[in-house]
Amino acid sequence: MTIEQIDTWRKTHYTKDVSVDLAGKEIILGGWVRNFRDLGGLKFISLQDKYGERQITLKKGNVSDELFEKAKLGYQYCIMVKGIVKAFDKAPGGVEIIPSELKILNTTPDKLPIDMTGETISELDIRLNNRSLDLRSLRNQAIFEIRGDVLRSIRQFLLDNDFTEITTPKIIGSATEGGTELFPIMYFDREAFLTQSAQLYKEQLSGVYERVYEISPCFRAEKSRTKRHICEIFVLDVEMAFANMYDVLKILEELVHNVIENIRINKMSALKFLGMENKTLTPELPFPRYRYEEMIDLINNKFGISLEWGEDISTEAYRKLGEEIKGYYYITHWPMEIKPFYIMPSKDPKYSESFDLQMGWLELTSGGTRVHSRKQLEEALETKGLNHLSFESHLNAFDFGMPPHAGFGLGIARWITFLCGLDDIRETVMYPRTPDRLTP
Ligand code: AMO
């Protein structure tokens, strides 16, 4: 088969713009063959582009014999079509296109590695191995349209609330969270790390721009092979000066409410495609708040699981909590001993001014009030067994009038997994990184 050149052909429209308003007009579309049917004297091609699909109809006698013959296409062939728009209410968008010319710009093997017609969903690992092809599916279009709109409306909400977008380094000299789950890299002749979190920089910048946010990748070297863990995460980091945890709880729930309201307005057809139109509902405000110890009591007394005060909540216990408490809720006042050094202790220093935002059984966010006194931070580092000298460049910022501040980090992929009703977090990342996957 000869591969044709694009020459002077340019798309006049995307599929989404082709409606009955254009009936009788000549247009040029470009995209991929999602599906085709050959009924002898009648051929249908479903042409798909980044926004959706439209039907190309070829009836023997109505199009030239040469064109009818040429329209022997394979799945995902890259094509351009010139033709006239005709109303046809049974086809996508209520129109069909009667072609006058067709260009075949590229072909595919006879058998594709995954199903692209939408009739079945191929196994996730095989789809991820062929991700650039897989991402073209209508299902993935729906997922990533929702993801795009979530990011857009997070930004809009925060800008409307006086937050400044910041960008912080992803190559760092020492651990942010004080943990061990870091990826080391060579930085010329020194060891450096990929950042786990924008934590320290967003805190420093809250002492400059007061209300800041960043949406950026962070790297977690955890060998967790679960459906909710990935190694390269994308986090919404927010930090607010002249504020404490309670201000953050309020802004976060408003943000969640606002973002879901927006996707219901802007992306209802994508939600419908994923069967989520009656599930991803705008939540009521305020979100219920439970203290950590209330959760421990509930877990111990109701679920017959034995958790000691001071322990982190296990996955098994979270699963049970998710059956008991539907929707979004906060767990606040976690034991200080399981929280990082930068978290402010409560009046009773056994507890901390910290919280998690849960969606059923899934943790979406953690955050809290931060320590803003240098002396207290140095002591907290020592308590956690960390050397304050290796945090000197961070502590330095606390010498110059650091305001009281508080914030949170929200895992974007976890939230999208839930909003789209997916089973595996890897579905929400274009090219996921896990302990077993470094390509594509
Ligand atoms: P934390 O470590 O809880 O907090 O991370 C914030 C949120 O990021 C998501 N997340 C992950 N998602 C997928 N895979 C992972 N391996 C993974 N690890 C974390 C979760 C989590 O709630 N600096 C603090 C935030 C703060 O206090 O502002 C932090 O990083 O949804």
Provide structural commentary.
The chain is an alpha+beta fold. It has 2 domains: 15-106, OB fold (Dihydrolipoamide Acetyltransferase, E2P); 134-288 and 325-428, Bira Bifunctional Protein, Domain 2 (BirA Bifunctional Protein, domain 2, 2-Layer Sandwich). 28% of the residues lie in helices and 26% in strands. The chain is built from 12 helices and 16 strands. The chain has helices spanning 65-70, 124-129, 131-134, 138-160, 199-209, 245-266, 268-273, 292-302, 315-324, 374-383, 392-395, 412-419; strands at 26-38, 42-49, 52-59, 78-87, 95-106, 164-165, 171-172, 183-187, 190-194, 211-219, 232-241, 289-291, 328-332, 354-359, 362-369, 405-411. An 8-stranded mixed sheet has the order 6-10-11-16-15-14-13-12. The protein has a 5-stranded mixed β-barrel with strand order 1-2-3-5-4. Strands 7-9-8 form a 3-stranded antiparallel sheet, with no helix packed on it. The longest helix has 23 residues, at 138-160. The mean pLDDT is 96.
